[in-house]
């Protein structure tokens, strides 16, 4: 499925590199594991090879997928905002989307929070989710599009210049 040195995405953790595949004995049974080092924080994960699909481990998005995701950020027609929803419900929804591992879901959370921030000050929890979405999205897009992460942040800052005004993504 995945090979050593391949870039992969682990939901809610981000882009990692398969460092090795090793066999370990657990409870008397032998099992193979992908040893994945997450690039953003240097955390090492052991992902059972047999369970990699179930936990959402996936290959890095393609260049074409990355371009579609970046383009999708321009479309604000699906923006629902925070009308009629309390913060706890939105927080759960956004957290689930970040954990899904789907880059389109991560982009959705980023876009929603940026647009919500236009009309109100984001809470601490909202800012944390925004930082997580920004980190997950910009690193994967940077690698997929062969650009620097700061360049992707600059593109997003330009797309949302009317919203961000003097508070660009960092």
List the defining traits of the structure above.
5 strands; single chain; 5-stranded antiparallel beta sheet; alpha+beta; 2 domains; Methane Monooxygenase Hydroxylase, Chain G, domain 1; 170 residues; globular; Thrombin, subunit H; 20% strand
Instruction: Report the uncertain regions.
Output: none
Helix-strand topology string:
EEEEEHHHHHH
The CATH class of the largest domain is identified as Mainly Alpha
Structural class: alpha+beta
Strand order of the largest sheet: 4-3-2-1-5
How many domain regions? Answer: 2
The dominant shape is globular
Major sheet details = 5 strands, antiparallel
Mean pLDDT: 91
The fraction of residues in strands falls at 15-25%
Secondary structure layout:
Elements: E1 7-10, E2 14-26, E3 29-38, E4 44-48, E5 58-59, H1 63-72, H2 87-100, H3 103-119, H4 124-144, H5 149-159, H6 161-164
Antiparallel strand pairs: 1-2, 1-5, 2-3, 3-4
How would you describe the overall organization of this protein?
The protein is an alpha+beta fold. The protein folds into two domains: 7-59, Thrombin, subunit H; 63-164, CarD-like, C-terminal domain (Methane Monooxygenase Hydroxylase, Chain G, domain 1, Up-down Bundle). It has six helices and five strands; from the N terminus they run E-E-E-E-E-H-H-H-H-H-H. The chain has helices spanning 63-72, 87-100, 103-119, 124-144, 149-159, 161-164; strands spanning 7-10, 14-26, 29-38, 44-48, 58-59. It has a five-stranded antiparallel sheet with strand order 4-3-2-1-5. It is globular.
